[in-house]
Amino acid sequence: MLRVMRPATQARSTCLLISPPRQRILQIRFASNETAAKPTSTTPTQKRKFKLGKFLFSITLLSGLAYGGAVYYSLKDDKFRDNFTENIYGAKQVVDYVEDLQRQGVFYDMKKKVWRIGSKYINLPELSEDNISSDKISEFTSKENPIIRKLSDTIRELDNFMVNHDLKHAGGKILSRARDELRNLSNNIDQLKADEQDLCQKKLEEQNEKYNQIIDKYENSMDQQIKDKEFALKQQFDQEKRELYEQHYTQLNAELSRQASEHDKELKNELVRQAVDMQRRWVRDVMIMVEKERNGRLAKLDYINKRLKTLERFCIDNTENLDASIKVHRLWCALKSLQNIVEQPHRTPFIEQIVAMRRYFSTDEVVSAVLSTIDDSVAINGIDSVSDLSKRFNTVREEVRRASLVPENGGVFSHLLSFVLSKILFRKHGLVDGNDVEAILARVQYYLNKNDLDTAARELNQLEGWPKKLANDWIISARNHLEVKQAIEVCFLLCFILFYFYLNLILNR
Questions:
Q1: Burial (CB count <10 Å: 0-12, 13-18, 19+), residue 370
Q2: Could you write out the DSSP letters of every residue in 133-176?
Q3: Which UniProt keywords apply (predicted)?
Q4: What pLDDT digit, counting tens, does each position of 469-509 carry?
Q5: What is the pTM of this model?
Q6: What range does the domain containing 460 cover?
Q7: Could you tell me if residue 71 is inside a domain?
Q8: Contact between 381 and 347 (Cβ < 8 Å)
């Protein structure tokens, strides 16, 4: 709107200079009223358009300011300088060049030159009214209006002409009055421009307030809709989760009961079969002994007694082996149930399985020691799966990248500068070397893609400072997952050892 009004303002100023003095006041008032009325008629019709050049200039200016601030801060902090020169392309050359200029004293010489030039303008002597010359009129040449500049040049030439021809005393009053009128005209034009800018600013503020009210109202309604939808989805998710848990728990109990009953039946059948075999062998032995006794071999009665004791010992050993087999089978079933819960794609509590194992194997020192390593809070809340940890790492990686350039005792400016510079850092991928934050994050992502959670957690634990604090929760979750998996693997190993131990005892007998 200001660009449209500028030619009209210049035309009116030309009319003011050409018209006689009596009509100047009326024309100035008419011009001021017309310029004040025009913004109200043209303001609503104009639409604000997106300007690509202005947007690119703003982005370039902000990037330059951020880069310059980083260079200045790197001169003050050595740790930030190391991170800045390693991760930003061309930063080392720029910092070295600025340090060379600082050592050569270029900045100090420029500062002295600026103060020396400023002192000349500050200490200029004041001119008296008797020594007024063309320099007095040159103050109008810096005005933006070309007509004012042209009139100033005309008055200056007239003044020089009168000075050169000794006519200064004859036309001095006329020149003084012309200069005063020119000054008043320039002030009136500046006042009209200021009034026009104030009116435009007022209209813009009113439109801005109106649009802000509309946006706030729309945001409030959308927030309420999102909250309602989130609440409904959360209730639906909790209901489905509860139903799935109850269904899985019922199926698990039914399966455990069925396996226990089948195992008891097998044990009873095995005991009956062994008892029948033992009775058959005993009857056979008795018959043999009776025959021998009939044949007069009564000297073999001691051997029969020893054989009977051996059979009794064999029966006792079989009973002990059956008890050990039941113990191993219970441990195996409990471990399989615990492993199935831990390997769920979502977090599932397994405190009931831990309590059952502690109750059944309270006398076993190895199992009790392994179960004591699992914290009760972890058993109550469950552990995150590898897929959940991989998803969480994507969010943690972005937060760590934003704080990767923040020193350990950095302030708000360090965080803001690290956030801005993280947008232009190059991401690293794969199994790369280096101890910087980007290299560590790339190696962690590589090991997570290979399902190697142990190595990924060890790599992420190498972080220091703010990145280590941001990744601490993820490291704790990964450690809990690995501890539970390790406890299950130890219990499985113990189960296999017991199985092979009792199997060797049975085979050796």
A1: buried
A2: -HHHHGGGGGSS-HHHHHHHHHHHHHHHHHHHTT-HHHHHHHHH
A3: Coiled coil, Membrane, Mitochondrion, Mitochondrion inner membrane, Transmembrane, Transmembrane helix
A4: 777 778 777 887 777 777 777 777 777 776 666 666 666 65
A5: 0.35
A6: 386-470
A7: yes
A8: yes
